[in-house]
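Database export, one record per block. Field names are fixed; values are copied verbatim from the stored entry.
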Amino acid sequence: MEFSGEKLTFKRIFNYIFGLFLITLGVAFSIKSGLGSTPVASIPYALNLILNVDLGVTTFAFQVFLVILQLMLLRSDFKSKHFFQLFVSVIFGFFTSFSMSLTAFIPAADSLLIALLMSVLSIVLIALGIFFYVPTNIVPISVEGATQTMAIVLKKPFSRMKVYFDVTVVLSSLILSYVFLGNFGSVGIGTVLGALCIGSTVKLIHWINYRLTGHNVDLKKM
């Protein structure tokens, strides 16, 4: 069986599912740190606070917006499989709940150092998850799909566009929260660190993998 012109092997499916799980585990540690949500969750959470609507609803609405954005930017290059990003969000939501339950036994950070270590672990897990699942070229999470789209359209490295995208999302969340709530909402030190460091960490993992295996992974393949 083939998908996206490539054979749908066990390794490809495993890397995809494992990568998604690592990202949600990173999200769980980010929340556990108490230093702010992950960058990609900042806008849905801000809308949740502003509109008093369930977080699941605002997350889904944000993902729909990102899929529409990809359609507008890619036009004829937008593939029908990319609409499945909306269905992947259901799997992502399940993994998020599962990851939250896995980290429930870990005590809340009782010092800034522990909180920062959790935040750094979150960044590494998310970056590693992106590195595993994006190259499988199955169906991206809408956030990575939008990042891939901008990397293709602007002809820039995925890792660099990941930083630009995350920073833009965080700044947008800050503006929304400040204008409508008078505070910074879910954005904290951990959110800013994630926005600045996840893309760079993906680049570092890519470099380490290339040095160890000699294999250059394509993170812009859609």
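Remark 1: DSSP finds eight helices and two strands in the chain.
Remark 2: The chain has one domain: 2-213.
End of record.
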